[in-house]
Design brief:
10% of the residues lie in helices and 29% in strands. The strands form 2 sheets. It has a 4-stranded antiparallel beta sheet with strand order 6-5-4-7, covered by helices on one side. Strands 1-2-3 form a 3-stranded antiparallel beta sheet, with no helix packed on it. The protein has 2 domains: 56 residues, no CATH class; 59 residues, no CATH class. It has 130 residues and is mainly beta. The protein is built from 1 helix and 7 strands, in the order ββββββαβ. The two termini are 26 Å apart. Keywords: Membrane, Repeat, Transmembrane, Transmembrane helix, WD repeat. InterPro entries: SecY_dom_sf, WD40/YVTN_repeat-like_dom_sf, WD_repeat_RBAP46/RBAP48/MSI1.
Length: 130
């Protein structure tokens, strides 16, 4: 994937995408407020966004079983890197998932899930919250 750290794209409110090479622009914007992108992309007619990151091998998984609900917190233990504990959604659903074996993830009762999350979040000095 070609990359240039000086190229920035931003989506406007009128569905255009402006592309800037900030190595060719001044550090401060012009006083008249004019926007002069290096490239204007037109034609997108509805909402949308996209992003890209460094492509590396990974194990795909769905971190958010509640669909479009926000992920409030996700925690994992370095001792068990394939298991994620997450609180998602507006009703604060608890979700624990083994990302290496997602079909076989069965953590039992809600109390079992809660205790697992508490263990992951509060009783481990090696936990990392994303």
């Amino acid at each position: 994937m070609p990359q240039n750290p000086f190229v920035i794209a931003t989506k406007t409110v009128n569905a255009e995408v402006y592309v800037f090479d900030y190595s060719k622009h001044p550090s401060k914007p012009p006083l008249d407020g004019a926007c002069n992108p290096d490239l204007r992309l037109r034609g997108h007619s509805s909402e949308g966004y996209g992003f890209s990151w460094k492509v590396e091998p990974y194990i795909p998984f769905n971190i958010n079983p509640a669909g479009m609900q926000p992920v409030l917190t996700t925690t994992y233990l370095l001792a068990f890197p394939s298991i994620l504990a997450s609180i998602v959604g507006s009703p604060f659903l608890l979700h624990v998932k083994d990302i290496l074996n997602p079909e076989s993830t069965n953590w039992g009762t809600a109390m079992g899930l809660l205790l697992t999350y508490v263990f992951f979040s509060f009783f481990s000095s090696t936990s990392l919250t994303l």
